[in-house]
Amino acid sequence: MPDPKTLNLSRLRDIGWSSWDPIGLLAPGADWRNEPFADEYDSYLIEAASGLRNGWPVEKVTDYLLSLASDHMGLSEVSRPAAEATAKAVAEYLRKMDHG
Q: Which helix (H) or strand (E) holds 93?
């Protein structure tokens, strides 16, 4: 089996900052590239992408992101639509990257 293509961290950040940002760090209209906290969600997005590559369904990635927001970050209000949109966008990015 060929080695998987390397993830494009900038692309994962584009997805995460545009559709997830559970703690609301990025001001509306701001660009994550100009922020000192640009890497805030990197490990979570990489884990989500790795999970998808290892066969996790989008639903499991959605649940993973929700769990991070509620359990790890301690947020009382979490957005399932935002987590699901993020999971689907990462899955689509991987599909396009891996299959042309």
A: helix 80-99
CB of 81 closer than 8 Å to CB of 10: no
| pTM of the model as a whole | 0.90
Taking Cα atoms as reference points, which of 12, 49, 48 lies closest to residue 32?
12
CA-to-CA dists, residue 71 to 31, 76, 85, angstroms:
27, 9, 20
Radius of gyration of the chain (CA): 13
List pLDDT tens digits, range 33-90: 999 999 999 999 999 999 999 999 999 999 999 999 999 999 999 999 999 999 999 9
**pLDDT tens per residue across span 2-19:** 345 789 999 999 999 999
Q: What sign does the CA torsion over 55, 58, 60, 66 have? A: positive
The DSSP annotation for 24-47 comes to: --SPTT--GGG-TTTTTTHHHHHH
Q: Which two tokens stand for residue 76?
A: 């009382």
- State the alpha helices, DSSP H only, in 6-78: 9-19, 42-53, 58-67
